[in-house]
Design a protein that fits this description.
The protein contains 3 helices and 5 strands, in the order αβββαββα. The chain is of the alpha+beta class. A 5-stranded antiparallel beta sheet has the order 1-2-3-5-4, covered by helices on one side. The structure holds adenosine monophosphate.
Length: 132
């Protein structure tokens, strides 16, 4: 059983902030900002590419509710909502989870920025192929 399955089963403690039949949310053990929260499905899937869409939608809904709730308590100025899928993307726990990360200001401790560059631009033929 993976570590998040053990948390969902109550075998490993966590600081729970939300629970229903399908979804659990708890504070990250190693928070990158105050209120850093993980939202997981109770049923195991390795990452969001493997997780049924209805559960991803449900986790998104819970993230929105938690964000509104945190607004009144932690008073952040913004949020990240993201999920790392697979090692190349930095995933370290292979049970799908979404990070809800409150942001306060540029000095809140998290250095996260998209620094786009010209060299990542796709040629037009490849761009066309990407259309699903
Ligand atoms: P990722 O690197 O996207 O897979 O994120 C995994 C996250 O899980 C990290 O932010 C860890 O700090 C967090 N984490 C790992 N084990 C636990 C745990 N037992 N309780 C709470 N958070 C955890």
């Amino acid at each position: 059983m993976c570590v998040f399955c053990k948390i969902a089963a109550g075998e490993i403690p966590c600081t729970k902030v939300y629970e229903d039949e399908h979804v659990l949310a708890f504070l990250d053990i190693n928070p990158v900002t105050q209120g850093h929260t993980l939202i997981i499905p109770k049923k195991h899937a390795d990452d969001f590419t493997q997780c049924p869409s209805y559960l991803v939608a449900r986790m998104h809904g819970i993230a929105r509710k938690l964000a509104k709730h945190y607004d009144g308590i932690l008073k952040p100025n913004g949020y990240h909502f993201l999920s790392n899928a697979k090692t190349a993307a930095g995933q370290s726990v292979f049970h799908v989870h979404f990070h809800l990360i409150p942001r306060y200001d540029a000095t809140d401790g998290l250095d996260f920025a998209f620094r786009g560059t010209e060299r990542h631009k796709l040629d037009p033929a490849t761009q066309k192929k990407l259309h699903l």
